[in-house]
């Protein structure tokens, strides 16, 4: 074989978007209990909420395994965000998927 890496998936293949990421959907309106389902486990996307806005962190390197330091996806992280990242503009890079109700 010409390609010596034939046993390994390509980086492009590894980062292909899942079907739920390819679809355009209306903004979500979730309760905290519903948000908890979006914890990045069992094929679910990883969402976090900050100040009532829900963000998708599924493909963010800093959120590998749906966690960031001791924080877990599927939660309202307004307090921890304000304590660590206030004014850094980190949320502007993330996809907004809805709001908490």
Automatic annotation (TrEMBL):
InterPro entries: Cyt_B5-like_heme/steroid-bd, Cyt_B5-like_heme/steroid_sf. Residues 30-101 form the Cytochrome b5 heme-binding domain. It holds the Pfam family Cyt-b5. This is Putative heme/steroid binding protein.
